[in-house]
Task: structure prediction
Amino acid sequence: MPILDNHLAKILNNEELGHLIGENEFVLPSYNGFGLANLTPSIGRWLGVKDMPLPAFDTSILGHFKESYQNVVVFLVDSLGYNQLIRLVTEGRAPLWKRELEEQKLIPLTSITPSTTASALTTIWTATCPNTHGVIGYEMWHKQLGMVINNILHSPITYKGDVGSLGKAGFVPTVFMNQATLGQRFGRQGVESHAFLPSSIANSGLSQMHLPGSQLHTFSAESDFFLNMRDLLNAESKRQRFVYGYWSDVDTLMHRYGTYDDRTSEHFYDFSNAFFRLFVEGLSPSAKKKTLILMTADHGSLETPDLPEYDLSQHPDLMNLLQIAPTCEGRLPFLYVKSGKENEVRAYFEAAWPGKFAIISGQKALDLRLLGIGTDHPDLLNRMGDLVVIPTGNAYLWWPERPNTMRGRHGGLHVDEMLVPLFALEW
Result:
């Protein structure tokens, strides 16, 4: 099977973090040719778009593709990790993808850090790293607004059942970032940009941030998703096209039941059947010849049982050492520490959870380029806090004031979170 993993040794090299606790499970993000951050710069290259902010894939990857395409299609399956897909293929639970490996290509890439949706999708739609676009995590301290915000819902994290209320504080999604969007970059050079999103999130604040310059197509189910995209590609166009489709349900089920739960796996099986039957088989021979289809993910995931010892409501002495509750992700918490208390925080972690967490300073994280290369966002250090906590194994922290119902998580540097697939189909 053409699984193109000859570069894995490079992206699995974790010496700079592994020495912290003597374990060998961390994967550092690649921003220079072997990562998700290099996906849309590569698409720009294939569509003839110049002056992308980040480099395209390394030549060892690009050499397996043509120089250019009329259409490049990206299906992003939220939370479908590379190791998860390999396991499904090996166990016979993804037979259609296994069949395609006879002639097609599967390439492992790294996600970005933090390995979470808001950060990864913003990287895709701006072709910049998290350190540059500044969307770092699910929850993020926003100094100018004086609050911790939810980067998906665009609301204060303490608001329950609320979406978009940051607008009341003057937050405007379309001007929040200091970066041009992919649709704007492509449009200026004559390339169409299309985005297919579930109707439930199509007009969310995050989508508004990402889609200026792109044509939005909404859908309610697999049928109108795949058939509408099929019809778009079957329609002749003189312009080159970037076409993006987002599917969220693998992530939803993973969080609720776990990465390898039957409910999660069976859903991907059904999704795959619809994808090949309705979309791939429905493309005209002419459209197929002109089109590169890519399936990828924003991040992988890790199964995380309900373990009360990680619930910070059980650790008031630690919380008293912090200025605010942690931010970012349970699998990559950012800590804002009271003045002079960093050593006490480190000592608390070692006493309460020996060997379960590595802790580095926010500045060390930047020195390691965990959040990317290029120019740092001017507010980056404020958004990162003083300490970055890196869990090992399936450890995590839980701080929301509600029951912990999550059986799967992501955001950290574990290999299962950090490796994502790039499955390429072309004819």
